[in-house]
Amino acid sequence: MTYVTPLANRRRLAIDHHGQRGEFAALWLRERSPDGETLDPRTGQRLVEAAELPLTLSIDSAEVTDGRLYLHFSDDHHTAFDLAALFDNQAIDPSKRLWNAADAPRPEADFAAALENDAALSDMLEALHRDGFVIVSGVPEEADGMQPLIDRIGPLRRTNWGGIADVKSVANAYDLTMTQRGLEPHTDNPYRDPIPGYIWLHCLTNAAEGGESTLADGLMAARLLRERDPGAYACLTRVTPSFRYRDADTDLESEGPLIELDSHGEPVRVRYSNRTERVPALPPEELEVYYAARQAFYRLITGEELTLQLKLEPGQMLIMDNYRLLHGRSAFQLAGGVRHLRQGYVDRDSTASRRRVLRQQLATSQAQGESA
């Protein structure tokens, strides 16, 4: 059953729909009206100037029929909402599956299938969105072997290091990634604006002793910190360090909290980069709280509870959500052989767009097939 109740001089509407309850402002409903007078049918872009709608706008009538909410506003506009879609606007994304080491998934995809088949590409992108990473096999073992699959999704993000770059030990390394040392869990490039959304790490050879990759789900770490130490969690969502990278030709700096919240107050992004973090000179008592909170978070992301270890084989590629996963590696010894990986970045907007469009296209195709 669905019940609608006008509130606040009919400038708000309370809706109870199959156990879900929401309150909606009349102005919000008016500017989001899903009709051809308000939204362009092809682009979904708004045709009315929302800032010119009267602030006193109210709802003259509201009726529910066959799962649709029919509204008449005080400016004499009529529209109808699909109730399920209306409540989807309020929902927090339930499709992300947080994990720890004991129950970590191993999402896999095949390079050739994702390259040639939309359903396989869609499955790969959905797994990446859900689990924060995916392991792709069958990638051509050549320098730019990942490029054709990147081209299926969106443009390669170019940085001061170029496009697809080497990850291997070199003399006079300009970044610690290019040494043999182990790397603590971190997110990449928090000193950039915008931060690269997805890391693509392609293995050409990995015969060196050591060099295992480590992954930790940063959103799970944030959730556990909130449960176990709310004060530390609050501190890491509040304090905003800066991050900086410099070399002879580059000077990059940005800022943001170690745990960033979305509009619902839920963790949506983590940052952690011991090598590039610069904490401002806060009052000493506040720094004491921050340092303790950071240590608590560090112990989570480096502990056995959350740390997943894997070693990429030649022809495998790891795609990681750089807003969610922290990654690192163990130290390696070149006496055992060569470790040569290639790395590129793809931004979040193009990746999310491709995933959503494929989902809609495949759903439409399936619906048409069932009705034929």
Keywords:
single chain, 372 residues, NE0471 N-terminal domain-like, Double-stranded beta-helix, seven-stranded mixed β-sheet, four-stranded antiparallel β-sheet
Which geometry do the CA atoms define? globular
The largest sheet is:
7 strands, mixed
Describe the oligomeric state of these chains in a short phrase.
Answer: single chain
What percentage of the residues does DSSP assign to strands (E)? Answer: 25-35%
CATH homologous superfamily placement of the largest domain = Clavaminate synthase-like
**Based on helices, strands and strand pairing, what is the structural class?**
alpha+beta
Tally the helices: what do you get?
Answer: 9
What's the number of domains?
Answer: 2
- The CA-CA distance between the termini, in Å, is 33 Å
CATH topology (fold) name of the largest domain: Double-stranded beta-helix
Report the C-alpha radius of gyration, rounded.
Answer: 24 Å
Poorly predicted sequence stretches spanning 5 or more consecutive residues:
170-174
CATH architecture of the largest domain: 4-Layer Sandwich
Count of DSSP strands? 24
Summed over residues and divided by their number, the pLDDT gives a mean of: 91
Broad CATH class of the largest domain: Alpha Beta
> How much helix, percentage-wise, in residues?
25-40%
Protein name: DUF971 domain-containing protein
Domain TauD/TfdA-like: 102-345
Keywords: Dioxygenase, Iron, Metal-binding, Oxidoreductase
InterPro entries: AlphaKG_dependent_hydroxylases, GBBH-like_N_sf, TauD-like_sf, TauD/TfdA-like
